[in-house]
Amino acid sequence: MGATRLALLLSGPLLLSGCSGNLKWYVVSPMTDAGRANLLFLLGGLKYTLLLSFTAIVISVFVGLLVALPGISGNRGLRACNRVYVECVRAVPILVLILWVYYGLPIVMGISVSVFWAGVIALALSDSAFEAEIFRAGIQSIERGQLEAADSLGLGYVDRMRYVVLPQAIKRVLPPLGNQLVYMLKMSSLVSIIGMEELTRRANELVTAEYRPLEVYTVLVLEYLVLILIVSSGVRWMERRMSDEER
How would you class 82 by CB atoms within 10 Å of its CB: exposed for 0-12, middle for 13-18, buried for 19 or more? Predict the structure, then answer.
């Protein structure tokens, strides 16, 4: 039943828009040689979208965790540093940050940044502020009795975080982390503005070549829809598995 609903959902836009005689679906039709070539060209950007998004999310998780730790410190100065970082980074739109990293870093720091790494740095930097808040909330949700038990065992700060706090906190923050991964996949489309050959950039190039924006962008919507549904299903599977392990 679920597969049938998904098929109807994916084919719905094509069926509805196909009522118009002005649409030329042969440009993206798997039934024609040109259509197959165009579809393969569009799908060629998928690996860059995935590589860009997963690299950025991994980096942002580590940076976010490092930023979150000062936020739960008893030192007011460290907490202030955490708050300044989170508020400043969250205030900058991702598109602006992508442009600044790509065009600004070579001038400010004298280093050459490739399109891929400019996208990774900008996405990871922006997402790390959100990850920091997610980890801070997850760590602070751990019951005080757990911390007291760790102290009674003589565990230091590093061992307490490693063996007691973080394993429990990660299970609690997994759903919002999954949401951030979905968010990252969608925001990766903005990297197309600096020439990254991911899904959106490929679609823009095909529109320029074929002059059929509605047909091409409909396929682009379906690509992102299927991708996000698959990733969301994977995140839910991980949540269920971790819940089963707790029982």
Answer: buried
What is the longest distance spanned by two Cα atoms in the chain? 75
CA dist 43 to 11, 27, 47, 117, 199, Å?
18, 14, 8, 21, 7
What is the per-residue pLDDT across 20-61, written as a single tens digit (0 to 9) for each? 456 778 888 888 888 899 999 999 999 999 999 999 999 999
Q: Which burial class, exposed, middle or buried, applies to 173 when counting CB atoms under 10 A from its CB (0-12, 13-18, 19+)?
A: buried
Q: Cβ–Cβ contacts within 10 Å for residue 200, how many? A: 22
- Helix, strand, coil percent values for the chain (each to nearest 5): 85, 0, 15
Q: What is the DSSP string of 222-243?
A: HHHHHHHHHHHHHHHHHHHHHH
d(CA 170, CA 177): 9
> Tokens at residue 11, please?
């084919």
The per-residue b/e assignment along 64-76, b for 16 or more CB within 10 angstroms, e otherwise, is bbebbbbbbeeee
The DSSP symbol for 194 reads G
Residue 245, judged by CB atoms within 10 A of its CB (0-12, 13-18, 19+), counts as exposed
- This prediction has a pTM of 0.82
CATH number of 26-246: 1.10.3720.10
CA 219 – CA 222 distance, rounded (Å): 5
**114-124 confidence digits (pLDDT tens):** 999 999 999 99
Containing H/E element for 157?
helix 157-160
Residue 211 backbone class (left: φ over 0; alpha: ψ -120 to 50; beta: rest): left
